[in-house]
Amino acid sequence: MVSAIILLKIEREHINDVAEAMTNFDEVSEVYSVGGRVDLVAIARVEDNDQLATLVTNKMIDLKGILDTETMVAFRAYSQHDLERMFSIGME
């Protein structure tokens, strides 16, 4: 499993549309609207780097309003939260 953080700069009038469209991609688990030098942060979880490349270079390229992206691949996850337990709620 490959986890990636995708930072997106978006034309102001397209921020909501891009965020909603990104949530429809199976590879994207979360999208955050943020303040700062980027407008959106997307969390992608994919099986391999090829699937990540397809998301960024084939699927996202069709979204109107994206000005710039930066994709960071996560090497390790550190958390004080039991993420597996949190994401399995209701999956019994």
Structure description:
- By secondary structure, the protein is α+β, with helices and mostly antiparallel strands.
- It has one domain: Alpha-Beta Plaits (2-Layer Sandwich).
- Helix content is 27%, strand content 33%.
- The protein has helices spanning 15-23, 49-59, 83-87, and strands spanning 2-10, 28-33, 40-46, 66-73.
- Strands 2-3-1-4 form a four-stranded antiparallel β-sheet.
- A hairpin with a 6-residue loop joins strand 2 and strand 3.
- The longest helix has 11 residues, at 49-59.
- The two termini are 23 Å apart.
- The relative contact order is 0.27.
- The model has no long low-confidence stretch (mean pLDDT 91).
> What's the count of strands?
4
Classified by CATH, the class is Alpha Beta
Quote the beta fraction: 25-35%
CATH second-level architecture: 2-Layer Sandwich
- What is the residue-mean pLDDT, rounded to a whole number? 91
Give a short account of the largest sheet.
4 strands, antiparallel
Distance between termini? 23 Å
**Low-confidence sequence ranges:** none
The CATH homologous superfamily is called Lrp/AsnC effector binding domain/regulation of amino acid metabolism (RAM) domain
Total separate domains: 1
Rg value: 14 Å
Q: Helical stretch count?
A: 3
Q: What shape does the CA trace take?
A: globular
Structural class: alpha+beta
SSE string, helix = H, strand = E?
EHEEHEH
**Helix content range:** 25-40%
CATH fold naming? Alpha-Beta Plaits
Which strand order spans the largest sheet, edge to edge or round the barrel? 2-3-1-4
